[in-house]
């Protein structure tokens, strides 16, 4: 990779269970594959006595190193330790969450020491991985990004996500809602038609569920209504089934 900095911004979907990164070349959006050839990367970070693993390698550690393999951190970011949903999640996670002045912190054994990390720091590790995936493809350093979040994320959660980007060395130009991002992709494919359309978008992920009604006309997107649950997704289906 050269020292040249990529002029544009990449788009990153920082998901509860999986994340992905894409770039837009002026004509098409390209989802960038990771080193395994997959277009999505597990949002897992694992800590061992020798190293830190992110993505697929980290997820593979979940069974043998559960106490030090962190996932679902999107359910912690921007929340308080005494949040009822955080309390409920802590009961089901194999890794340890501790209270630091009201903020939840992940506690792990790393390099032979007990370490604590904020949700922003863990998220930054996943964002850094996605940044590296993009840099490998583009052959340039990536400095700017647009990151998506659930439509129902509050201001604290949005700012914490932006902070995670900064820790990863990214200038987060904008935080946009996941359903809006889907609508923009839909609009790119249909061109700047003057035809008036109302589009209902469902975004069911691993940890969140959003529904947005968007009005599209002449390339302009207007969110008319939104609803959702930041704690309803595939993980919850699995938990209730088991």
Structure report:
The chain is of the alpha+beta class and 242 residues long. The protein folds into 3 domains: 10-42 and 122-178, Nucleotidyltransferase, domain 5; 45-119, 2-Layer Sandwich (Defensin A-like); 188-235, Nucleotidyltransferase, domain 5 (2-Layer Sandwich). The protein has 6 helices and 15 strands. It has helices at 56-59, 84-92, 119-138, 155-167, 178-190, 234-241; strands at residues 10-13, 18-24, 29-31, 41-42, 45-47, 52-54, 69-70, 96-100, 103-110, 113-117, 144-149, 171-177, 197-204, 209-217, 220-229. The strands form 4 sheets. Strands 1, 2, 3, 4, 11 and 12 form a 6-stranded mixed β-sheet that branches. A 3-stranded antiparallel β-sheet has the order 6-5-7. Helix 3 (119-138) crosses helix 4 (155-167). The longest helix has 20 residues, at 119-138.
């Amino acid at each position: 990779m050269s020292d040249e900095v990529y002029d544009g911004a990449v788009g990153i979907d920082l998901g509860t269970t999986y994340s992905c990164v894409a770039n837009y070349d002026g004509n098409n959006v390209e989802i960038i594959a990771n080193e395994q050839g997959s277009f999505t990367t597990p949002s897992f970070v694992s800590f061992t006595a020798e190293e830190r693993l992110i993505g697929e390698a980290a997820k593979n550690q979940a069974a043998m190193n559960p106490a030090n393999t962190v996932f679902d951190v999107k359910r912690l970011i921007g929340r308080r330790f005494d949040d009822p949903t955080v309390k409920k999640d802590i009961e089901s996670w194999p890794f340890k969450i501790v209270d630091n002045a009201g903020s939840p912190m992940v506690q792990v054994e790393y390099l032979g020491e007990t370490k604590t990390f904020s949700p922003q720091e863990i998220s930054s590790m996943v964002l850094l991985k996605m940044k590296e995936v993009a840099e490998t493809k583009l052959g340039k350093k990536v400095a700017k990004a647009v990151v998506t979040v659930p439509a129902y994320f509050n201001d604290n959660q949005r700012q914490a996500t932006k902070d995670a980007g900064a820790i990863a060395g990214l200038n987060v130009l904008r935080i946009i809602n996941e359903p809006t991002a889907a609508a923009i992709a839909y609009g790119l494919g249909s061109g700047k038609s003057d035809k008036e359309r109302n589009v209902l978008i469902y975004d069911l992920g691993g940890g969140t569920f959003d529904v947005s009604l968007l009005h599209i006309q002449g390339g302009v997107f207007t969110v008319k209504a939104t609803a959702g649950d930041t704690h309803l997704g595939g993980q919850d289906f699995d938990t209730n089934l088991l």
